[in-house]
Every structure is written in structure tokens, then in C-alpha cells.
Design goal:
Blueprint (H helix, E strand, L loop, with lengths): L5 H12 L6 H7 L7 H13 L3 E6 L2 E6 L3 H13 L5 H11 L2 H11 L7
Antiparallel strand pairs: 1-2
Helix pairs in contact: 2-3
Keywords: DNA-binding, Transcription, Transcription regulation
Pfam families: Penicillinase_R
Organism: Virgisporangium ochraceum
């Protein structure tokens, strides 16, 4: 899974925060400050669907898009993909563990112990 580009992130921010599936028009309207072209957003959503980041369902004449993964699941998958690029996963994990805050370390310990997700 690849990291998202700037416009892809903006589009996904709309998708992730929407309470219901969104159309291309919904995304364009919510990104009005960026002034993206309708066709540009349509292309971005089509590519995101091809990458498996969003799912889409035809409702009437318009596609409705939903996130295939939560933002947290997506970022976790990116982290795992990056971890797969190293020759020493253990050393990389040690460097990562030493770089996180005390609260983040507690969260990791709870997760490793199988405790419920706090969020």
C-alpha cells in the first residue's frame, strides 16, 4: 500500500469524516477552498478505488464512495509496509519503540497484552 499524495489525503479526509458514503460532488463541495475540478476528484476517487482504499457502489447515476479501511487501519498498514522494507525488523521496531512517547509506549504495551483498544 502506498502513501497518499496531497490531493488523495484531502479526498480521504472527506471520506473518513463523512457519516455516510459520499459522491464526487460531495467531495468537490467539501474541498471548495481547494477548488478542485470535478473530473480531477472523480479520477482521484477512481484511483483510490483501484488501490482498494475506498469502495464504491452505484446508486442511481452516481457512485457513492466509502472508506475500505479506517484512517487508523490505513496508517497501520502503511507502517507494516515500511517495516517490510528493512532487513532487520527487530532493530527497526526497537528504534521505533524508543522514539514513541511514554503514553504511546503504554498503549503499545496494552495492545500487545491483548487489552481492548482505547479508541
Amino acid at each position: 500500500m502506498r502513501q497518499l499524495g496531497e490531493l488523495e489525503r484531502a479526498v480521504m479526509d472527506v471520506v473518513w469524516t463523512a457519516a455516510t458514503p459520499v459522491t464526487v460532488r460531495d467531495v468537490v463541495d467539501r474541498l471548495a477552498d481547494r477548488r478542485p475540478a470535478y473530473t480531477t476528484v472523480m479520477t482521484v476517487l477512481d484511483r483510490l478505488a483501484g488501490k482498494g482504499v475506498v469502495t464504491r457502489e452505484l446508486a442511481g447515476k452516481a457512485w457513492h464512495y466509502s472508506a475500505a479501511l479506517t484512517r487508523e487501519q490505513f496508517v497501520a498498514q502503511l507502517m507494516l509496509d515500511v517495516l517490510g522494507q528493512t532487513d532487520s525488523r527487530s532493530a527497526t521496531l526497537v528504534h521505533f519503540a524508543r522514539a514513541v512517547s511514554a503514553e504511546e509506549a503504554r498503549t503499545l504495551r496494552r495492545a500487545l497484552a491483548g487489552e481492548a483498544d482505547p479508541h
